[in-house]
Sequence to fold (1010 residues):
Amino acid sequence: MLKIGQVYSAQKAHRKSVMQAMHGILAQPGQPSDPNDKKGRPSGTDDIGMRSLGPGAPSTEYFPFYAMSLEVGSTNAFATVGKETPASTTAIHAGKHDSSSGLSTYDLAIALQYGQGTGSAQLVKFMSDHVKMVHSPPYRNWKCILSAGTTSAFEIILRMLAKPDDYLLVEKYTYTTVFETGLPLGVKFAQVRTDKDGLMPNDLDDILTNWDETVRGSKKPSLLYTIPTGQNPSGITQPLSRRQEIYRIAQKHNLFIVEDDPYYFIQLGLYKTTSQVTEPPTSVEDYVKTLVPSYLSIDTDGRVLRMDSFSKIIAPGARMGWVTASEQVIERMVRGHEVSVQNPSGFSQIAVFKLLHDSWGHLGFVQWLAHLRGEYTKRRDVLFEACELFLPREICRWVPSTAGFFAWISVDWTKHHKVGLMSSLQVEKEIHSAAIDAGTLVVPGSWFLPDEGKSGMDEVFFRMTYAAASTDDIREAIRRFGAALRRVFHLQSQDSCSAVKSVSN
Amino acid sequence: MLKIGQVYSAQKAHRKSVMQAMHGILAQPGQPSDPNDKKGRPSGTDDIGMRSLGPGAPSTEYFPFYAMSLEVGSTNAFATVGKETPASTTAIHAGKHDSSSGLSTYDLAIALQYGQGTGSAQLVKFMSDHVKMVHSPPYRNWKCILSAGTTSAFEIILRMLAKPDDYLLVEKYTYTTVFETGLPLGVKFAQVRTDKDGLMPNDLDDILTNWDETVRGSKKPSLLYTIPTGQNPSGITQPLSRRQEIYRIAQKHNLFIVEDDPYYFIQLGLYKTTSQVTEPPTSVEDYVKTLVPSYLSIDTDGRVLRMDSFSKIIAPGARMGWVTASEQVIERMVRGHEVSVQNPSGFSQIAVFKLLHDSWGHLGFVQWLAHLRGEYTKRRDVLFEACELFLPREICRWVPSTAGFFAWISVDWTKHHKVGLMSSLQVEKEIHSAAIDAGTLVVPGSWFLPDEGKSGMDEVFFRMTYAAASTDDIREAIRRFGAALRRVFHLQSQDSCSAVKSVSN
Fold:
């Protein structure tokens, strides 16, 4: 098993909170928290029962919430889910004392009280079962923890595994929050090149094999961050063979792999091959077979820290996700939670628990994920069809994404008439402004580069998402972007009227 | 206005997230997010309307929650609030699209989408109005931010205002989480002595005036952490005059004051003077006059960072609180949120917003707080009555608390028969173990000392809480604790049977 570095590590005198220490004592057999356990009770204390004046938690009597009801999507009517409330919904309910009255294992009194740094045992159990079914991690002592969202989890992981001036290995272009989170912690970024299958194993190996502490000003990295499925911003999904190669390099150089995988269940069909209606899955196992296996599923060493999120598959406002890793890593994350977020919101936990455990179940959850896959596949197709119609082929290239939320359009900036006088960044900026003037918002590729990578930028990209806009808006946005590109590059303008007509519906 | 130190400060290149940057563009007049604003629109764009393929947020269509209903305490029936659901409750409701249908300013589609680092504008507005009514901060540019709980807020504040090896000034005994959170950040602790009115201004002044960098190994502190009301663990509440003295010392030595005030609304009547029934307040203003003014309310300089929490007054599981400080400090906290928790859970935000804004209003909220004050006053009285009955006066001293959750019992350890052979810590441990053997859980005072303060511990204390145990359990716990003390100190055992009888009801 890998060893953990620093900040929250045992070198620092970790102090137990009163809650923790009290919980330890109260959880002993014979205490009121465990009324049915008769074993191991010290003799003579049978009829005593511990009276606690210890942890300063308020009385649950004084939580002014008595019941919560949620109207949620029904498993038999996912297809009708849309902007309006569908005809068929399911009501789920949580009372304050459902647990003591035997109605449920989880209730408002538990959810709204102080909790454990792992998140509630009930939801951790459900997510652990889910992880077992979907990823089946090939080593024994893995564990799950509920995070307060992946940004929070990532920050705690960085504090745990990276010291100031340490390098984090990242895809050449990556999610901007990685930089924003790393910079205040003093983390630097080492870019790994990518091809159509994502991270390039040879480049990763070269970087690590030839790492020069003197040149880089810091020791050889021990931490790789990757978004393996529907990468942000490139949309690329690493095939299994690529993941296996990268994993072998990680073994060779003893890397931790932070697998940030919010789009794992947004694995879409191949572009233009999905017109056939997909039936909802009838078993979790069968559905899992349709997905590219995760790094976690090939992690024999416990070197993967897998971050899952509810943001793209349930709702971002839940501010909740889950992390799966070795029990040693999870134990440190629990310590990290205790001195920051403590645990995700109890409102979020009980809402998601009631939805997944009480209403949908594991199969229903996967049917929901399959429904989302179908929906985002349609949106993806609309965007790339519009690209084919409206973008000038002379200067634009793209590969239709097979997962996630993003299209990544390459623009040949060297075809700009001022190529000798303008940098790639300047051309990118001109296009971005022209697109805004034309009424389309897209994201410049340079935003996804670390500061140290911007000066040498040799390509111009734009990221576009099909996640939220209507199909009409997607088409219109791409039409405008194409027109803006033609203006900037002095290309003949498209007869947009006829083109628009040809795609109506 | 005070200047902010380091980690999240402008020295670090702060990168804007895609969300932030996009929000800036979308919030410009004439964009779809602002359909009614006709002013300032660039000419020629009137009929265009921006199409956004920018931020990678999922479509709200795919949030599987359509409505939330909560059964909450009714303002006219707080007195019946108890373990069971009271006869009269109020139903509050949030739909997915209440905002676009004009039913509310806040709905599930907003709450469950990605949000802003401040927390939602709707709830920030309500809490800001509350702060204005209760504390009326005496300078212009103060602001509120919703925290993901006070532990999270405190960690972000430490990262913002303390560098490794910096000292934090704290009450001699203080909340253990302060140490747990500070230690991994490399923070050290300088203890300030306290008397019956809390922090001693002379001691604070002495420490700062005579600060010796060479001896202490670090520069003079710039950060004071205090729990001014119902201090944890001592239960002490600083009177206004004491707060004013401390504030003047803070001005003299240019300190930030972190005012951690979760028990502000648990200001109890004086012990044994509250048998008269208190009528619910009829105005916020009148109720506020019954409370000791906060540091925020005397903060002319913007040097106070006030941390409020819903944990003790609504529910800890909401994992939400609010921080009030200068706009410069809040702006930095927003940046801190963006790279960690982002914002509190949308489920928590909408539940609390619907409760406070839609159902209770400002007056109803204060009536609830007055109800809690009455309830905790009764519990406090039960505990100290039991102390009078059961604790051996020969070795125990206490001052009944006038706020918060805690009693702080001093035990004269020098009366132990092995006083020459045992340290204060050893006597404390013997008492703690004897109490557990007798079936009572209390918290040893040494747990509330920083590591550097334990060796010189000259007093033995125990912290007890009346917050959660039933009145019968409180009495029984104190009776057992008294018996344990008598055993440890070889005192004559009390005729406990007659004593118990004398307090039965």
Q: What stands out?
A: The two ends of chain A are 56 Å apart (CA to CA). Chain A touches chain B through 119 residues (CB under 8 Å). Residues 63-114 of chain A form one domain.
